[in-house]
């Protein structure tokens, strides 16, 4: 029986992980620490039994120490992060505060409770990171592996790179039992509607423009969030202490292809479900018009990385990890979820 503390567990990936873990490991205890900033939503945890949400800041080292000690935490899974690149460009300070200072606060608390006071009792600090720390690939470059040199190009990716190095340092210097995973672009239920897939889905439903950066040919690897949760589970269960594992979706696609599939998926949904036209009368598909008519090109993002790709050989060979969802199936399931959970996302639009 494990006792988990999940930071950022009311956010998109964190909440999906909590839901996955509760279903797969019902005997374990799960506590969530989340500051409930704009992207943290307690509704993401609705309907879950045996999950205690503590509203607090990961930079509050004393609070983290108390949680680790009083709740006998032996596994800390660290999702809490500022993660939107556009926000990091316009306001980088919050990314340094949360992603660097916050991660260091967690590491200090873990070291004090698990090593200094705990006598080296069994524990795990798992740090969730991103493929963006590796920088940008050319069209013919090999995919990112765990040995790819770091070359972050945005304040967001630089802050995550710094946190990755801190986690590594606490293992090699102090002996903290850590693992790190670097994932590709996640999508799925409960994603705050500022990221590409939920933003564009909701814009399609409301007849709003679909803003496409540059030429739309920036390439990303797409990972369904439940596959990501499975990957983290495998790292926790079988990952080697001190190691890093890349978790990818095996779906390398240019943004334009993703946008075209979103539009086509929405068109099919409206064609097969006449009720959608009355629910979303402003959607082009409600009037038999192609959703793709909403596409609009805008000025490219500053420093926009051209291509990311994940080589997941290490996770596959050592952990038996492999993504189970195709992008087509995952996207259709995601659209179905957003259509069935309008009461979840509509209040978020006001934010």
TrEMBL record:
Q: Which reaction does it catalyse?
A: dTDP-alpha-D-glucose = dTDP-4-dehydro-6-deoxy-alpha-D-glucose + H2O
GO biological process terms, alphabetically, are:
nucleotide-sugar metabolic process
InterPro entries for this protein: dTDP_Gluc_deHydtase (IPR005888), NAD(P)-bd_dom (IPR016040), NAD(P)-bd_dom_sf (IPR036291), Sc_DH/Rdtase_CS (IPR020904)
Name any cofactors this protein relies on: NAD(+)
Q: Which GO terms describe its molecular function?
A: dTDP-glucose 4,6-dehydratase activity
UniProt keyword terms in alphabetical order: Lyase, NAD
Gene3D superfamilies membership: NAD(P)-binding Rossmann-like Domain, UDP-galactose 4-epimerase, domain 1
Top-level lineage group: Bacteria
Residues in a coiled coil are: none
Which EC numbers characterise this protein's activity in its record? 4.2.1.46
The reply on keyword DNA damage is no
Q: What class of enzyme is it?
A: lyase
Q: Where is the NAD(P)-binding domain?
A: 5-333
Q: One matching Pfam family, short form?
A: GDP_Man_Dehyd
So what family is this one in?
Belongs to the NAD(P)-dependent epimerase/dehydratase family. dTDP-glucose dehydratase subfamily.
What protein is this chain from?
dTDP-glucose 4,6-dehydratase
- Organism, by scientific name, is Tsuneonella litorea
């Amino acid at each position: 029986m494990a006792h988990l503390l999940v930071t950022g567990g009311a956010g998109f990936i964190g909440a999906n992980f909590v839901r996955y873990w509760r279903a797969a490991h019902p005997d374990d205890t799960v506590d969530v620490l989340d500051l409930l900033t704009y992207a943290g939503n307690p509704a993401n945890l609705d309907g879950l039994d045996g999950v205690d949400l503590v509203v607090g800041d990961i930079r509050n080292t004393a609070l983290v120490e108390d949680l680790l000690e009083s709740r006998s935490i032996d596994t800390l899974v660290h999702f809490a992060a500022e993660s939107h690149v556009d926000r990091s460009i316009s306001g980088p300070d919050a990314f340094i505060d949360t992603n660097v200072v916050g991660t260091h606060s967690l590491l200090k608390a873990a070291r004090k409770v698990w090593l200094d006071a705990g006598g080296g009792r069994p524990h795990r600090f798992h740090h969730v990171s991103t493929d963006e720390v590796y920088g940008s690939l050319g069209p013919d470059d090999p995919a990112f592996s765990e040995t790819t040199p770091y070359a972050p190009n945005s304040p967001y990716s630089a802050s995550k790179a710094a946190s990755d190095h801190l986690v590594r340092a606490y293992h090699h210097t102090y002996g903290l039992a850590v693992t790190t995973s670097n994932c590709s672009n996640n999508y799925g239920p409960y994603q705050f509607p500022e990221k590409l897939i939920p933003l564009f889905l909701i814009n399609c439903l409301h007849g709003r423009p679909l803003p496409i950066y540059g030429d739309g040919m920036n390439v990303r690897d797409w990972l369904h969030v439940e596959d990501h949760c499975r990957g983290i589970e495998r790292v926790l269960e079988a990952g080697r202490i001190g190691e890093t594992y890349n978790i990818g979706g095996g779906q390398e696609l240019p943004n334009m292809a993703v946008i075209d599939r979103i539009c086509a998926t929405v068109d099919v949904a409206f064609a097969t479900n006449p009720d959608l036209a009355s629910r979303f009368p402003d959607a082009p598909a409600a009037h038999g018009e192609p959703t793709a008519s909403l596409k609009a090109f805008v000025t490219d993002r500053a420093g926009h990385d051209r291509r990311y790709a994940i080589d997941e050989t290490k996770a596959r060979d050592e952990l038996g990890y492999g993504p189970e969802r195709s992008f087509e199936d995952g996207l259709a399931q995601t659209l179905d979820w957003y259509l069935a959970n309008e009461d979840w996302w509509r209040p978020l639009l006001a934010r």
